[in-house]
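To: structure desk
From: M.T.
Subject: fold request, one chain
Message: Could you run this one when you get a chance? Sequence is below, nothing fancy, just the single chain.
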Amino acid sequence: MLKNKRLFLFDIDGTIATGNKLYRGTKELLELIEKVGGKAIYITNNSTKSTEDYVKKFEGWNLRTEEWQFVTSGFIAAQYLKENFAGKKIFVMGTASFIKNLREQGILVTQCVEEGIACVLVGYDSELTYEKLERVCEILSKENIPYLATNPDLCCPAPFGFIPDCGSICQMIENSTGKSPRYLGKPDKEVVNYCLELTKFSVEETIVIGDRLYTDIACGIAAGVETCVVYTGEATREDVKNTRFVPDYEFDAIEDLFEQFKKETEGHIKSIKNGEKV
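Reply: Done. Structure tokens follow.
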């Protein structure tokens, strides 16, 4: 039941916001989660921004957050590189913010075709150029080295509809080189497992909320936690009828999830106000 949930793992784009627009009901839901003693963490496959960038973005919505609350595909990729390619040269295709963040974490990043590259990492690059694509294709065509990508999402919600995401970029590369990457972000269950370890909440207390079935919902299912889809992004009700990634809950928008959670936790809130043990 929703009333028992305390750790809310939110996707961002298409779930609680699009671009700079925060969806109605988001702030109220976050405040309610805090009132019942819960926590919100944002698990996004968008690697264009660092955790610091996201804190600033949320400040623009008058939402106070801390960097630990953002588990991006870029963060997951950085952890993987540090564990498996420490001190080795990594060719990275991504935004300037993504590159800067990786370098600040001690990862040896290059954006040049040169000797000694140990791995290729492709991120969701909103600053993509044809020259960048050429470099990736040249390296992958000449070298038999590990090829990683931050996330498999094919499209990213935009105010007018959708734009190509990392998965679509990688399809272009595969069409040219015949090589496909290992994806590190959602739906990998380690994204959820990291949040569980960080907060110490149980599987039963945790829920993943997102707009995409093959990343958000699949990630929650893989980790054994309940899931909720909202229809403000990619997924439609028709998609849910024809998927193997079936969510436990579905709502038209985050505002409807807030209303249901509010309804189910009213007794809990009253007990807290009255100083009763719960």
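Reply (cont.): The longest strand covers residues 39-44. Let me know if you need anything else for the meeting.
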